Every structure is written in C-alpha cells, then in structure tokens.
C-alpha cells in the first residue's frame, strides 16, 4: 500500500469563510454531540489529576516561570542549542518560513534518494504543509501516529492538536479502513482497527529511508531533543530509518534538563489526563561507532514562521509559552460546539486564535480572535498561564486599528477596519460627548421607535431586536416627580 495522498491543503478551509463554517458546524447535531462528550471526558480526566488546587497553582507558576525565563533568553539559548547539537553530531538548519523548511527537508530526502518518509506526530509539519511538498517532489510521506494516519487516509486535517481524529466515530473509521486499506474487512472493534493500522505502518517503518518527528522540548545545555508520545511510533520514526529529521518552532527551547520535568508533568496531565506518557524519548546524537541501532544521520529544522513577530511584542510574547497540551481547546465552549476544522488553521481553538495571526497575518485570521466568549476558561486551565483572553482582546483591537506609536505593526494590522465602523464610532463619540445632542437623539429615538429595523446584523441572529423604550429614563423619573 502506498502512502495516502493529502489531497487538501490548508486553504481547503480558508479562514475567510470562518463565519459560514461555524454556522454549518453548529447546525451539525452529530458533531456537537461527539465533541461535547469527548471534551467532557477529557475535562474530567484532567480534573482527576489535579485534586489539590493549591498544588496545581504552584506547579503552574513554576512552569510559567520556566517558559518566561526561556523566552527571555531565546536568542542566546538558540545559539547555545545549535552549538551543542553540532558538537553532538546533529546538523542544524534554520528556516524563516514554511517554504524554506519544506525545501530543507525535501533537499535532505533527495540527497539520500528517498522514496518514503514515515512521520511521527508533528504539528509544525502540518503548519508547513510538508506532506504536499514531499509529494510534489515525488516522495511519499506517511503519517504513523494513528490519529494522523486516519485523517490522512481520509484526505482531512487534524481537528485537535493532541487527538487528530477526535471528530470521527469508530463506525466512520471502520468504513474508511474497509474502503482504503487493501485486505481490511469492516470491523467496529477498536483493537482490531488499531491492529489493521499497525500492520500497515510496521511494514513502512522498515521500508522508509527518512523518519521525521516533532520536538516537545529542545534542551540547550545538553543538545537534547525531547519527544513525548504514547504509541511508540515516534521511537520507530527516530530510530529505524537511517536518517532522522526533527522539526520544531524556535520557541521550544529550554536551558537545562532540569527544566523539562515540571513542564512534562503538566503537559501530560493537562492534555490527556495521564500522569506520564508511555514513551519519553531523549535524542542527543546519531548512531555512534559500535552501536547497533539508531539513525546514522540526524537533522533539526528550527522554524520561525511568524514567531519572531510575537516575540518582538512584550505582551504577545506570552503566546510562545505554549507547550501544545490542548487543554484550552478541551475547555473552550466555542471549540466544543464547532470542532477544529471550522477554524481553517493548523492550530484551532483558543491557542490557534492567538498564534495563527502571527503565522498567517491578521488579514486572513482577524475573525478568529472574535470566536471567544471571553469566559476565561482557557486562561484558567493553561498549564503555563498564558493570558489568552487578554491576548484575544489585544488582537481584536489590532485588527481594527492602525499600529500604535512605539509598537511595530503586526502583519495585516487593521485588516478588519472599515470606513462604516469608523463613521459609526465617530458618531457615537460625538453623541456621548455632547449632552444637548445626546438628549435630542434619545428624544427622537423614543418618538420614532416604530422605525427600529427588525434585523440588526449579528445581534438578531440569536436575540430579539433592540428597541428604544416609549419614554426616556429622564422622562419617566420626571413623571414620578424625581430629580435626575
């Protein structure tokens, strides 16, 4: 069986159609029920891992401190990481954007005349659309994480950063395997379905010339790449093929090994409610003389892709603290109702709403920060205490205003600004700053209330129309002989 083609790029759900897709998702009762049950389950598992609220807050404070400390020294730590990795025999590559990252990886694969790449879970490779770049170069790219394999087989994108196929039922997966996997028969047994996938992947691990993985933490002090996983496919991708390529965002670096355990402790429990994952891989060098296994060549691709824009802004820098646990999605009332595909970006949910504008620009993503009730649940559960609601408010403002003095403009700054809204707010400011004008307006509004339009843009989608009262409050108080 050849690797399934990823027939749909990121643009198959463009962010410009966000409103339409959310409407469709909310109308899908099956989708809403599936996500509601899955999110309730994940929230309960996470809550069970943190019975002591005070202890949790202490752990979150430590994790936040580690991430903030690492980011405060990011340029220095990245240089130190490169030096140590190079000394360990790992080749380091820098990529400013997705195109450069893909070109580097394709170049390495072509140098080795590779025909097949097996991939461990890597959201950064989803971000760069690596699979499409590989296929364009005539090299098959096969996802080996079971959830990623399922969505790739169906020509879809992940709908959650931790559980890519959470939107699918076992019946849908059973039909998919029966249709797409040669020799597979229809079965709704989860164990049998996993066995079918493993049988395919086991063969590919042995045949692939290149293995690719993500990186959860990169330790500058020792030049160690840390990889968290549950299925063992990550370990296969990083040890069986002769060449291992790791790709990660530049923000994943920490200074010391001792900084990893506090983050790992919160990552696994926040993500899936596990005390620890099944596998924790630490990769520091390629195969050494006399060793019997491991890759002969290891590469690390460090990707920017808009991260330095967030880094340059003191407030937005907190976005880069993220350790990709997905807890904010699991607790978000909006994500729970519309699912991941509605967002049209690699990273959905609250974290996607604050990081995607840096990667794709506000012109393409200005609607995303508005997809929040600002209830604060995402900020309350974030293990590294990212103030997500504050950042959402900031991005909403940046999307409708020009750059402020002393602040570098974001890509797409002011994309949501309109002449009509400028006129409306200018009128509002004039009205509320002139008492005589305000009194004249409210008098007219109450006398001509019958002219109130029944449809009032987004307000009346789920609410009754706003209509002025027959008399102003001042008039009603005067009628009761009360002074205002």
Instruction: Give me the oligomer status.
Output: single chain
The N- to C-terminal Cα distance equals 80 Å
Structure class: alpha/beta
- Model regions low in confidence, pLDDT < 50 over at least 5 residues: 5-12
The gross shape turns out to be globular
Q: Return the CATH class of the largest domain.
A: Alpha Beta
Helix content: 40-55%
Helices and strands, with pairings:
Blueprint: H1 18-26, H2 29-49, H3 53-72, H4 74-88, E1 91-95, H5 98-111, E2 116-119, H6 123-127, H7 130-136, E3 140-143, H8 146-153, H9 170-180, H10 190-207, E4 210-213, E5 217-219, E6 224-229, H11 233-239, E7 243-249, E8 253-254, H12 260-271, E9 279-283, E10 297-303, H13 307-312, H14 327-330, H15 333-338, H16 349-360, H17 362-365, H18 377-381, H19 388-400, H20 419-432, H21 435-447, H22 459-462, H23 473-479
Parallel strand pairs: 1-10, 2-3, 2-4, 4-7, 5-8, 7-10
Antiparallel strand pairs: 5-6, 6-9
Helix pairs in contact: 9-10, 16-19
Molecular structure report:
- This protein is α/β, with parallel strands linked by helices.
- It has two domains: 10-308, Rossmann fold, CATH 3.40.50; 423-479, no CATH class.
- Helices cover 49% and strands 10% of the residues.
- It has 23 helices and ten strands.
- It has helices spanning 18-26, 29-49, 53-72, 74-88, 98-111, 123-127, 130-136, 146-153, 170-180, 190-207, 233-239, 260-271, 307-312, 327-330, 333-338, 349-360, 362-365, 377-381, 388-400, 419-432, 435-447, 459-462, 473-479, and strands at 91-95, 116-119, 140-143, 210-213, 217-219, 224-229, 243-249, 253-254, 279-283, 297-303.
- The strands form two sheets. The chain has a six-stranded parallel beta sheet, with helices on both faces.
- The protein is globular and about 95 Å long.
- It starts with 17 loop residues before the first helix and ends in a 5-residue tail after the last helix.
- 41% of the residues are buried.
